[in-house]
Request: fold
Amino acid sequence: MKYARKILLLWGISFLVNAQKFSVILGRPTDKSMTLSVLFDQNIEYQIEYGTQSGSYPNKTSLLSESANIPKEFDLEGLSKNTRYFYRLQYRLKGGTSFTASPEYNFMTARDPGASFVFTVEADEHLYDKKGVDNMYRICLENQLKDKPDFMLSLGDTFGDDHNATTITSTELKTLHANYRPFLANICHSVPFYFCMGNHEGENNYYIKQSPPNNLTVQATLWRKYYYPNPSPNAFYSGNQEVEDYGVGNPENYYAWTWGDALFVVLDAYRYQSVDGSSEKPKSWDWTLGKKQYDWMRATLEGSKAKYKFVFAHHIRGQDRGAITNAKLYEWGGYEGDGKTYSFDKNRPGWGKPIHQVFKDSGVSIFFQGHDHLFAKEDLDGIAYQEVPMPSDSTYEIGMLANADAYTANQLRGTGHIRVAVNPESVKVDFVRAYLPADVKIGVRQNQEIGFTYTLGKAAPSNVVLANQLEPKEWLTIIPNPSNDLIRIQINRNYQKATFSVYNQLGACVLKSDTPELQVKNLPEGSYVISAEIDQEITHQKILIKH
Ligand SMILES: [Fe+2]
Reply:
């Protein structure tokens, strides 16, 4: 009887251990280390077992101890560069006897030059307000895991701290940061996470002045750092060296690193956003990266010989809409709001040149931003300006409806992430769409379909609008199709403005028109895609040219 009771007790304990939940968020990967932020919902003892072969864990940490619901960061050190590691957690209730093993997870250490790898980018999760939908976001995260990226970046508007900016409490901020963690935990056990501040993080030099330390910026920074490991300068990362008051320490807000053939530079558009910190939403010349961050960014970009250079920020100049239109203005582009009067030296004496010019002169490949909630890809002076769509918009068009007119090219509806494949010869960028199961339509809309793709590098730069995003519209007719001469596009609905572009199979734009008539007699035979932008809607139709 005693024995049976003991069995029952052991079974009960093991059930409790199995029933408890944990999350692991990887961060700050280097060539020889990885940070694991581990959080259990019970008081636990655990070990991390790891090795370079799946299923074999010759290395073990000492027994670590953790209290319920308190994340603890632990660095795995002494790792080899350019190596995939496999690991698992062995855990038990504090004082328990037998261990339970987690599933096996894995990660890469920093790649050598010449190595091929994938990373992903998302922006504006907005799970804290009605724009972001939990189930939609989970699908997008699963899609990113399937890409097997070495790491992912989020470009902000993730925690939503600033919605009651002057009255929000530290406890409420804790909850906002804690709530996001279970989502990331679905994939970040094997995908290190980098965070880039958005405007809704509320970490800026306007709020930081309001009754410190009991203000939005100080408390939001503390809770962000508590739950999410971001880089601070060391032998592998450069970045912000400052140490802030009130226990904040290094704010881990801007940083750079090299991975394979690529340099990654993450900027913070908000912490120093207003020249004298007196503006909640600084405009024109009042918006700034701050001289320190600018000098660091410039030295980092100019000092790097990496083949590819990627820069990330929530948005150029912080608050307005659009990318290349704004990239010409103020601190980013040097011109006054009229776009004609160059006055950078007067407004930023001693700085030298505006941000876009630094990008151009130092060979930046792609600038990634969020903020506007749609996919758009523009080019300015050989630099791709990539607007990253939402990963969590179940309407698939929040940004298209609100902000498409702020962009000049390749605006697309859709929810999803950006996948970037870096290879020695080229960089391939894909817009990977996500769909809720109920919205999938065979042959028309499929989860993980590629909405747009382009390549940089030795292959001729190209933009490709893929056939699987073709969505026939009953109000748009192309006559004749196939065609060998003049194509007429009939739009059977009211509209204000329409533009049309024809893309060949390599994705090159071969024809553009502001009228619904396209002369194609000089185009070689073959299959093409007509991209029709009608007011704020873009649709793509396939056409054949036969002579
Ligand atoms: Fe946003």
Q: What stands out?
A: The chain has three domains: 2-107, 118-415, 476-545. The radius of gyration is 25 Å. The pocket of fe (ii) ion is lined by residues 124, 126, 157, 371, 373 (CB under 6 Å). The first helix runs from residue 2 to 19.
